[in-house]
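Researcher: Here's a chain I'd like modeled. Treat it as a single chain, no partners, no ligands.
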Amino acid sequence: MSQIIKIEKVNLWYDKGKPTEVHALKDISIGIEKGDYVAFFGPSGCGKTTMLYAISGIDRFQEGKVLINNRDISGLSNQELAIFRQTGIGIVFQQFNLVPSLNVLKNVALPMLFVGITSEKAEIEARKLLERLDMLQYADRLPFELSGGQQQRIGIARALANNPPIIIADEPLGNLDSKNAQMVLEFLKELNEKDGRTVIMVTHESWSLRDVKTIFYMKDGVIIDTEKTKMNPSSDVIPPVITLTGPNPMMVVKNTKYIEQGAIALDALDGICTVTISGSVDTSTLGSYIITYTSIDKAGNVATDTRTVKVVLTTFDIVATSGPHGTVAPFGITLAKYKSSQTYNITQDDGFKVATLTVDGVNLEVANTFTFLSIDRSHTITATFSDITPPVITLNGADPMSVTKDSMYDELGAVALDALDGKCEVTISGSVDTSVLGSYTITYTSIDKAGNVATKTRIINVTLSPKKDTDTDIDIDDNIKYNKEEKPSIRVLANYLLRGSMDEIRRFETFVNDKFDEKISKEEFCILLNKQFKDGGVGLRKKKAEKIANYLEEIVENRKIIRRIYSILDENPEASISDEINSIRNWLIEGYKGKMSQLKVMAFDQVISDRIRDFIPASKVVEILDLSNNRFGVGFSFRAAQSMAEKLELILSNENDKSNSDNMLEKKL
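Model: Modeled as a single isolated chain. Structure tokens:
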């Protein structure tokens, strides 16, 4: 088989020529065949991960060659290496490295978007990958909402995004429990054996080498040994799996011929195995008989299974119904109301099927009595009726629902329908305080006549500004531009800066509006705020009026930065906006007394950038700012997170809606 990777005399140093110099890889020369399953095995610090980074082009080696499909990657530019890592290899990291602000589906679709695939097609392919890893039900969740094993499976799906021929796994089991580690190993084996991909894994756990075909043993940056593994029958400890052909138990009518249905045995290594059958059936005598099936594979593993054959007087067909099927105990049965017809199999104490009972249930309203005839005597059973299906509750309106702060919340209610009773009454519990930002839960409960209970909830998010589809200057076509409306919602701003009577707030709104329209200067604005209400002002103290005026100037300046960001991204979605993000962040943390570590600053900048691009909704900002660093958050206190989120929303456009973010993502990717 041809070599897909060839490494020739590779040497790699860190801090070469310095007192801290480390010779990480020493004269490495190996070949990896196409379709092989390879592991670099050794203690921590032996150079295993460095070997992977050299193969993937992440770390630059100083001497030697690494040829991937006969192409030397040491001569590739940074851009060419980026393309190679996007399409030539898929990397599975120990720390998962998922984008915390993107949901599972977008994390998997992201690599496809970077190579020019449209967002629509990328999400279709991402869903297929998630379905293959049994993770499709988590498509809309954020990474911190998943377990470690689930995050690693998402990492594997992302590595497969552009269908690379080579999969590189850097300690993929390091952060997993034993159950999830086994699942990951099974999938890596499937990628190698079923897909034919070349899999390269780094590990220091010997038990994880079970499926590996080639092992490179490493120590102190050197390959000290190479082992080719092979599986043989003596290592097979799993017995065959026997599958019976035909029903179990099987009913045979007295004095008829018994036809043996047989069984099939399959072994993981040997394929189909021989099955021997023991036991016999005498159809002239009523009773139960046992047939035993035995299979032995090449490794000597034994598997057995049995079938029960009952010789009875007669047999009956079973008519399946959607209603509950009761059991004669001894002669009482429960039926579902209003069903057109139900057929039950009636059995005697010896387990032989002797009769069936068909009940017409169209007009069954009360308990009734039915008679059926068995082989030897007539029996009477009493039927009772019950409705076991709870109502189905359907909410009116959206879930979740967004409500503007200080607006009127209108409860839209819900409808409950029961299969038997029709419409059911719905009770509502929970309340919404629109004067306080946050999420509220409304619970809807319905009980039908049979006492079955159904519940459903709706989430109400009280936000500074709702998302709108009108009054926007966005062009709805292939050349959508970001909204550059300069003024934020005057009502929201007024409520944020001033806690007064409605008359004071309305007058304050007018002054703020005039200030934004540059009808009045900063000095005139301060005078109007300071003037008594009866004289046409707002009645604020001079210092507070100046403070609000200065704050308003800051909002205007930061909104100009936002406009500049949108303009930059319109022209080049890949352009750097780090300076602008830095200015906005410094304004948001003014007055914050807590410590700002480098990690905290980087995480906060990422949240600001994602919110500007509308990758995350306003309702999620406080939650992410409040989350700790080890849960992919920023680590602010809840009060600080809430204050900074409110300030951020004040400088963002009202029309910064989803259509903008979807278009931005498509243009970027």
